[in-house]
Amino acid sequence: MERQIRGIPASPGIVVGYVHLLRWEVPDVRHRIIPDEGVSAEIERFHAARAQARDRLQQLRTRVEASAGPEEAAIFDVQLSILDDEELTRGVAELIRQNLAAEKAFDEVMLEWRNRFARHSAAMLRERVGDLTDVHIRVLSLLLDLPDHDPVSVPPGSNAILVTHDLTPSLTVQLDRSSIAAIATDAGTRTAHVAILARSLGLPAVVGLRTATTDLHGGERVVLDGGTGMLAINPTDEEIAAYHERQREEEVAEAALSELAALEAVTLDGVRVILRANVDIPEDAEAAARSGAEGVGLMRTEFLVVGRPNMPDEDEQYRAYRRVLEAFEGHPVIIRTFDIGGDKLPIGGFPTEPNPFLGWRAIRMCLDQPEMFRVQLRALLRASMHGNLRIMLPLIVTLDEVLAARRLIAEASHELTGRGVQHRADVPLGIMIETPAAAVAGDTLAPHVDFFSIGTNDLVQYTLAVDRGNANLAPRYTPLHPAVLRLIRRTVEVAELADIDVAVCGEMASQPLMAFALLGLGVHQMSVAPRSVPLVKRIVRSVTAAHAEVAASAALRALTAEQARHELASRLADVVGNAPYLYDGLPDSR
After folding, report:
1. Same domain, residue pair 126 and 157
2. Residues 16, 80: one domain?
3. What pairing do the DSSP bridges indicate for beta strands 221-225 and 230-233?
4. Which is catalytic among the residues 193, 481, 524, 547?
5. Which of 38, 98, 301, 375 has its Cα between 20 and 30 A from that of 193?
6. Rounded to the nearest 5 degrees, what angle is found at the Cα of 229, between the Cα atoms of 226 and 230?
7. Is 302 inside any structural domain?
8. Is 505 noted as a catalytic residue in this protein?
9. pLDDT (tens digit, 9 = 90+) per residue, 500-531?
10. 366 belongs to the catalytic site
11. Domain of residue 184, residue span
12. 180 occurs within a structural domain
């Protein structure tokens, strides 16, 4: 009989496979004394483990460079340099000469280094703590003869389900889609970085399981259902057959939805809705174009930065942006400038903060680092020659930030003109409405921008004071809260008065019931995960805008998120039936 662990659905799909357990954490090390005559051998044992760790990192670097490119592979250069640091190795050897076992000596030196770097005044060194931790885990695991849990050790075609506490950048770049079939994590929520990444890669995923890494031992046969947020452990053959049947039904339903790709998203009463795709990496662009998306409503650019020891240069960025623009052949492509910070930190040069979502991130960081920002702006202006580019600024809260960004865009254009480089100087500029400040004061911003895009992931987080990455708070992260709905409605009204476009690009738009609500609130442009385009299109084509408006008005009058959900779900059921997946997410987001 199967046992189930319930989490949060992050990326749809059903996978039957075997657990590859990744406990990527510093192991406990007991205090062990060695005799004088064993000191030399112990030092040799330390150097052998260090050499073995170095070989593994070189293998990882080569593999990642082949699969993801040299920029992503550079994440391992920092860790290789740590392993070769003479001060570190000398410190470990000195402690071993004081009769400490190699594992304890290495553990103490690494703890001291991590504490020292974490308190350092230089941001670059503070950011090295993550690399130090990775090296700490890797070498200790060898010295303690612990099992090798690297994702790279999963044989191709093994249909493994990766179970880990969370995915760090250095683990993420190692993911091999030929061997990893699905992801399950203790931490995270539907809008956490790992969930967004899984949807982008098309990997079924469940997050927020909390106890999966302690409940499982590795090697168990499991079923992961990314649509319901369920991990079934050791199911019977009959139970697996039932899951396979449901998987076939979902594949048939998805095939039926794919037939909508060529059709327009028009309501039964003739209201046209523009559906675009969210793109995390350039490789997503071709799949997004095939989904029937009318361009890109949000291209995140953090993939160029996260997990790297240095910032990408202008040419590298230009090539990435150009690739997406060319994939959509004239359809609008909205590229968001760097939203670094929060849960998307690069390796080097930026501080780790105790409250990063309220800290130095996104447009704040870019305006305070104008040289870095101008590199990105020059790359964007150059890429605009290859398609219908629009630039979008994240986390805007005040007009001063918009005006400062416009000045830097003008400077970037002037620099390109001086170099004789072709570009467009008149690229439309928009902003993300993702804070209550921007939503309430939208009328001060609208005259100075060309469009609004409502980022519901952060708007919900900031409005409700709920950390969207905290699995313990997931039930309180409620996009249908009356305050959120009212801020969205106000933003739409401000945009209409200013005669500028308004769209929603957050994960909220990817969920059918939420899309129905947004349509009723007056949102006629939405950007969703590529695989969600047909599903949202089906909803749009099944209802009238007038019916959605009546439902949204009832939701706006509701006193709680649950009441709002009931008002919307009952009215949607009147026209599309009672299919459960229509009301909770993709297909379920409990």
Report:
1. no
2. no
3. antiparallel
4. 193
5. 375
6. 100
7. yes
8. yes
9. 999 999 888 888 899 999 999 999 999 998 87
10. no
11. 3-24+150-251
12. yes
